[in-house]
Design a protein that fits this description.
homodimer, alpha+beta, SH3 type barrels, Nucleoside Triphosphate Pyrophosphohydrolase, 2 domains, four-stranded mixed β-sheet, 12 strands, 39% strand, NUDIX_hydrolase-like_dom_sf (chains A, B), hydrolase activity (chains A, B), hydrolase (chains A, B)
């Protein structure tokens, strides 16, 4: 799969584009008539858009969350260990095991630099060999943002953690060969962490 | 990877559990002091919890979204074509190509039945051979819910679509062998769709 996953579309591109013939028509079905901000806090905002369907002649409210882009990074040591982070997560009221991750800061343009920053802040590890593994839409139904995936090769511990006051993060080194078991058992359960790990394994052909 | 991904943890389980020694202490750092509902609409609610950190003696507001669980399903025909859905998504203002998906209805208990229901409603296809591929936490940092993944084998067209008034969904049959290209090119970009497709390919050993 690696070859297909990592290369850009080549000869298929013409055919694939045909899938999108209907795009413009579909886009034009809904018109935003009104927009109200429900919640705004720092770099996050939640909006309700009252939309009008030009064919069906109906009005419906849609909910939308606006975030800055997110970054996830798989840090790999020379001993083929993955540096994971363990932290309490409010969404599910549990401590989870994840890859280092975070959001772009306001004004921050380069997701790769953001990923390297998050890696250093959350773990104290850094790398001079960062591989971009692509990006995905976090949840296009209700969110506007993308999550960018990276692999940091040959990471080394270069500093102390530099955490926000509200963060408590422990580090766990896990063998790359144990990642599949941790995913299948549900110990690693964050959808974006799993996707980043699978992309990294694919890239490494492991 | 298939073998590892699909089997439950066996001999590793003891070791893996050691990763969670700190869990109880970390859980007890934050106490919810106040909780207010910011937005509630149907089966979705957004809350802000004012929390007190018992060690650091600080108060901080955390945002949390409560959804019912979600389901994603990869429908595969006997000709090894995947039945994808194409629809306008408000989050990114684009038409996307995704696997059939949805949320559990209020009172609906069985995610597999929900996935079969969504498959039938969105595409008109159905199957008597559904495989469960596990679940992931959609985003444990800010959401409480899980997304359950399925593979529907040997699907056949058995009815018309049965869409909500607010839905406009087109069907696209794509060869299973073209899925990797569609992901790498960004044509398929929804994080959960991609994860479901990778799990299905892993299960099918393709």
């Amino acid at each position: 799969m690696k070859e297909n996953m990592m290369k850009k579309l080549d000869s298929h591109f013409g055919d694939v584009n045909k899938l999108y013939i209907g795009e413009i028509d579909m886009k034009n079905f809904w018109e935003v008539q009104d927009r109200k901000i429900i919640y705004k806090s720092g770099i996050v905002s939640f909006k309700e858009e009252k939309c009008y369907h030009t064919k069906k002649k109906i009005i419906h409210p849609f909910f939308k969350m606006e975030f800055l882009d997110w970054v996830n990074i798989v840090p790999l040591t020379t001993k083929e260990e993955v540096v994971l982070v363990k932290q309490y997560r409010f969404g599910i009221n549990e401590v989870t095991l994840e890859v280092p991750a975070g959001t772009l800061d306001k004004g921050e343009q380069d997701p790769q630099l953001a990923a390297q920053r998050e890696l250093l802040e959350e773990t104290g590890y850094s790398s001079n060999d960062i591989v971009s593994l692509g990006k995905v839409a976090a949840n296009p139904a209700i969110q506007n943002n993308y999550c960018h995936f990276y692999l940091a090769k040959d990471v080394i511990l270069t500093s102390e953690q530099d955490l926000d006051l509200t963060e408590d993060i422990d580090i766990e080194l896990v063998k790359l060969t144990e990642i599949d078991s941790l995913i299948s058992s549900g110990q690693i359960k964050h959808s974006l962490s799993i996707l980043n790990l699978l992309y990294a394994k694919e890239y490494l052909n492991k």
